[in-house]
């Protein structure tokens, strides 16, 4: 039988394609398996032709595949035809791998047939995983750096309740026999100082602990208040006024990693404190607004000098900082965190009489 030019051309394309190309009939039997598929799956053409396509699928897919074909032929309900999607394939050695699969349909001699184009995503997925690991490491380093910068103030603040505990316990011991009521009151005050010290340690641990991206439903208001308290505790001199009256008194729940969102808020509030440290009356304000049922915004503003125009266009780039001893990764990491949560972090220029005159950062996060 003479091969036409078009047939020869198509055969050459199939044989030299870098993507895998497979064709099956309505029963799922493979009748086309190009050389690229052998490199992807490990099976030779002779191993696969005439066998059911399910041999190239993990068991959880294979056991339902024929039912999917039958349902489509009977109802026309297409779950994947004409739509590319990422699925898992099964290699000859039994290992699973991620792949992109696009499925098309054609008719030959009155019989419905299907053709699939397969792209191995193993390297891409591995690169994305590595990138996430690097971002996680940078994020952790940024948190540790922020706490290190606040270290002396935190140590001083932590020493206060510990000293008070010692004094209250000494006083209560003396009063235990002569004045039991006074002793009990002293014990209660010592317990309160223990709680205060524990809260400080807990907030420090929340900032420096290493963890994967563990997302769950969290109360955004609680996260912001905790971040503000940590910054207030860590501030040398405690001069800045952090106004949280712009927060709602209701619970605002988002699906997010609490450590990462806390890191963003600590970074923004701490930057505002640093920007206003030389002012006679430093002021910082945190506002929150539920814009619509799908989005919430948090704004941190201050009455500092604002952002130097020379830095504005690359403010969120890594290793860009105006601080003498800064690493320049804080805002870059915060920007990445916001985007990874489906939101954004921006420097805004919304100036009016209700705004403080310094920098204004807006964090936008989805509610869903």
Question: What is this entry, summarized?
Answer:
This protein has 368 residues and is an alpha+beta fold.
Note the main attributes of this structure.
368 residues, alpha+beta, five-stranded antiparallel sheet, 12 strands, 22% strand, elongated
Estimated radius of gyration: 31 Å
Number of helices: 11
Query: Quick one: overall form?
Result: elongated
By secondary-structure content and strand pairing, the structural class works out as alpha+beta
What is the share of helical residues?
40-55%
Number of strands: 12
Strand coverage percent = 15-25%
Output the strand order for the largest sheet.
Answer: 2-1-5-4-3
Provide structural commentary.
The protein has 368 residues and is an alpha+beta fold. It is built from eleven helices and twelve strands. The chain has helices spanning 5-16, 35-41, 45-48, 59-75, 122-149, 151-178, 180-208, 220-234, 258-275, 309-312, 330-340; strands spanning 20-25, 30-33, 85-90, 96-108, 111-120, 216-219, 241-246, 253-256, 283-292, 295-302, 344-347, 360-366. The strands form three sheets. A five-stranded antiparallel β-sheet has the order 2-1-5-4-3. Helix 6 (151-178) runs antiparallel to helix 7. The protein starts with a helix and ends with a strand. The mean pLDDT is 81.
């Amino acid at each position: 039988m003479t091969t036409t030019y078009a047939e020869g051309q198509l055969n050459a394309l199939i044989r030299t394609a870098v993507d895998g190309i497979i064709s099956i009939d309505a029963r799922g039997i493979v009748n086309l398996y190009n050389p690229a598929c052998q490199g992807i799956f490990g099976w030779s053409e002779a191993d696969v032709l005439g066998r059911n396509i399910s041999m190239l699928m993990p068991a959880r897919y294979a056991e339902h595949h024929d039912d999917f074909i039958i349902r489509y032929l009977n109802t026309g309900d297409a779950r994947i035809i004409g739509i590319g999607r990422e699925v898992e394939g099964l290699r000859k050695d039994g290992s699973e791998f991620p792949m992109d699969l696009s499925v098309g349909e054609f008719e030959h001699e009155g019989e419905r047939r299907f053709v699939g184009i397969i792209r191995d995503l193993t390297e891409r997925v591995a690169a994305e995983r590595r990138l996430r690991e690097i971002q996680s490491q940078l994020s952790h380093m940024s948190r540790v750096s922020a706490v290190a910068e606040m270290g002396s103030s935190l140590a001083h603040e932590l020493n206060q309740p510990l000293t008070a505990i010692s004094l209250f316990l000494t006083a209560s011991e003396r009063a235990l026999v002569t004045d039991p009521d006074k002793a009990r009151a002293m014990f209660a005050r010592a317990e309160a100082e223990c709680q205060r010290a524990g809260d400080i340690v807990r907030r420090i641990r929340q900032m420096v602990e290493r963890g994967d991206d563990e997302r769950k439903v969290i109360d955004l208001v609680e996260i912001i208040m905790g971040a503000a308290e940590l910054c207030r505790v860590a501030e040398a001199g405690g001069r800045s006024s952090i106004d949280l009256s712009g927060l709602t008194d209701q619970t605002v729940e988002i699906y997010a990693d609490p450590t990462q969102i806390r890191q963003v808020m600590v970074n923004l509030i701490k930057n505002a404190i640093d920007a206003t440290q030389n002012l006679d009356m430093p002021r910082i304000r945190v506002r929150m607004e539920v814009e619509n049922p799908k989005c919430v915004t948090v704004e941190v503003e201050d009455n500092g000098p604002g952002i130097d125009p020379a830095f504005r266009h690359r403010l969120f780039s890594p290793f860009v900082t105006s601080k003498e001893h800064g690493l320049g990764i804080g805002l870059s990491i915060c920007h990445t965190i916001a985007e990874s949560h489906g939101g954004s972090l921006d420097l805004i220029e919304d100036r009016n009489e209700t705004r403080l005159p310094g920098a204004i950062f807006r964090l936008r996060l989805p509610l869903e």
